[in-house]
Write a structure and sequence with these properties.
Blueprint lengths: L1 H29 L4 E5 L3 H14 L3 E6 L1 H12 L5 E10 L1 H10 L9 E8 L6 E5 L9 H20 L2
Antiparallel strand pairs: 1-5, 2-3, 3-4, 4-5
Helix pairs in contact: 2-5, 4-5
Amino acid sequence: GENNMKNRRNGIYRGACIIFGWLLWLTSAYGQEPVIYSTQEPYEQVKENLEFAITNQGLLIRGIMKIGEMLDNTRKDLGYEPVLLRGDAFDFCSAQHTYAMIAADPRNIVNCPFTVVVYVTLEQPELVYLAYRVPQLLGSNGAQVSAAIAEMLDTIARDTIAE
């Protein structure tokens, strides 16, 4: 009777707390707005500067995804209007930051590699944009590790567009 009802209420309460916690994590993990810079430097120069800024931090670029080319090659078949003139995503890792991130909580592995994108829109062809997203990390020192990663990414961005 009464014990079953009490256990049921506790179970519902625990379930609601778990769901609420999961929703909070989702909004914090994916709710982070990208950090965006812009410059009037030529696109190829910005790409070259970004490559140098990444390697200057002692980091290895794992790949460059040609997002603009992919969209351009597929948009006609898919019936899409063009949005970007150019777009590339640079993927890279930092052993130091990746270790700290995963030591804080192994689930943070989902945030590796780090990515910085360079793109030009049809609406503003005179501007080259540089953007990245700072990961919101799990774990007791996740915020501290996230701040260190944000500093690294911002240094790379600022070195890229430094005039």
